[in-house]
Design brief:
homodimer; Arc Repressor Mutant, subunit A; 9 helices; repressor (chains A, B); TetR/AcrR family transcriptional regulator (chains A, B); DNA-binding (chains A, B); DNA binding (chains A, B); Homeodomain-like_sf (chains A, B)
């Protein structure tokens, strides 16, 4: 065994502790919500020594944003699918699929998304993280719009970045209402309505 | 003089005091933001006796929601204009006008709207008020959509209430970005982009 392998074992242990803390954090946030959750509760549930959570995360807000990354990963994957439609119909089919998967992924993590909603309202760190997440989605949508504009499928008159924002916000707010149970969970109808409005407006 | 006239004078005085408190509240909120503002500061600026503000308003949150009503009134007026278009073009012209006036009204009250945004995030009372405001706008838009669907101008396949939500949220978020200075203040371009996307998608 050489030094690098020993270091790697220690790193592996650190990774496991970090993973334990994240799993415990998830449970604590689900149980207590964001505001009532404490690092002490997380440490306790993870069976790590007193204060260990602070070695890995600056505060509960930072730990929480890590959990957000994991939740959003599925949604990013959906948003990041290659988007090279050759016709309006192809574009519609893919946009419909993306919209549906976006809503579905949020609903699969319904309880955690409720905590995310709460946390955005009270933690500037979480709010900033959410704004980064938004920017990432909006950046991707902007590129998709530019592609179809250059391909002659979508109207050139539109400001791609503004339309991307409008479209994302529409999806985001409807997603929150689904998560909070404020609109009926009919994913097919919801996604079709939104995708039809958007594609009908943007495409030639 | 009879009793009713005396009562009316007292009522008039009460109305003036209330008005003073609201004006003072506006100044204090603009100066300190929502969280740092106190009823004591408002009382002091209004030159009303100690504790008078609490006679008229339960707390600063309630006083603030009154101020929000006033700010939103102009926007409600815009949203409440009769909407009976006979063609897609007429509909577009009116939607464009409404969108522009909505953004413009918010920008005319830019500093107060920044405080509103802050207050929504920290006060459940203000958040609830904002949700009522949203519901009022969305209710109006839903009726407009139903009208044009019945008139055969817009596609019947759309769920009027869901589309109304999507459209309002798109406008709301873009409005916040304008208020917070996150997008360029080009009201014509912004309103045209949004109105074209929406009308293009919804109308036949």
């Amino acid at each position: 065994m050489d030094g690098s392998e020993q270091l790697s074992k220690r790193q592996l242990q650190a990774m496991r502790t970090r993973e334990n803390l994240l799993n415990a954090g998830r449970e604590v946030f689900l149980e207590n919500g964001f505001q009532k959750a404490t690092m002490t509760q997380i440490n306790k549930l993870a069976h790590t020594g007193y204060g260990t959570a602070y070695v890995y995360f600056k505060n509960k807000d930072e730990l929480f944003t890590e959990l957000m990354e994991t939740i959003m990963k599925k949604m990013y994957d959906v948003a990041g699918l290659p988007f090279k439609p050759r016709t309006k119909e192809e574009a519609f089919a893919q946009i419909l699929k993306q919209t549906r998967l976006f809503m579905q992924s949020a609903l699969e993590e319904k309880e955690m998304m409720k905590v995310v909603k709460e946390a955005i309202g009270v933690s500037p760190i979480v709010e900033e993280k959410w704004n980064h997440i938004r920017a990432r989605f909006i950046g991707g949508i902007t590129k998709d719009i530019q592609f179809v504009q250059e391909a002659g499928l979508a109207n050139e008159k539109f400001d791609a970045s503004l339309i991307a924002k409008g479209w994302f916000y529409m999806n985001e707010q409807v997603m929150w209402e689904l998560v909070l149970g404020e609109i009926e969970e009919n994913l097919d109808a919801v996604s079709e309505n939104l995708a039809e409005l958007y594609t009908g407006g943007l495409y030639k």
